[in-house]
Amino acid sequence: MYADKMDEESAKYLGLAMDDPALVIDNTVFLNNGNIFEVSKVIHNYKHAKLLKLATF
Q: If you write DSSP's letter for every residue of 33-49 in order, what string do you get?
């Protein structure tokens, strides 16, 4: 998870200006056998992004 600036395409889809801030989450999910199941890159509109931390003890 990191902050970055919007590229032109992402800004267009999110209704923001190019170079506006964005919250970016890169995620790779693996199966138990080690094979990759999913690869994703999600770009969030900085005006609507909220974080929730869940902890298990």
A: TS-EEEEEEEEEETTT-
Both tokens of 10, joined, read 């992402």
Give the number of C-alpha atoms closer than 13 A to the C-alpha of residue 9, restricted to the C-beta side.
1
Is the model's pLDDT at 4 over the cut of 80? yes
The whole-model pTM stands at: 0.70
Tokens of 19: 């170079």
Edge-first strand listing for the sheet containing 36-45: 2-5, 21-30, 36-45
Return the closest-CA partner of residue 15 out of 38, 37, 48, 39: 48
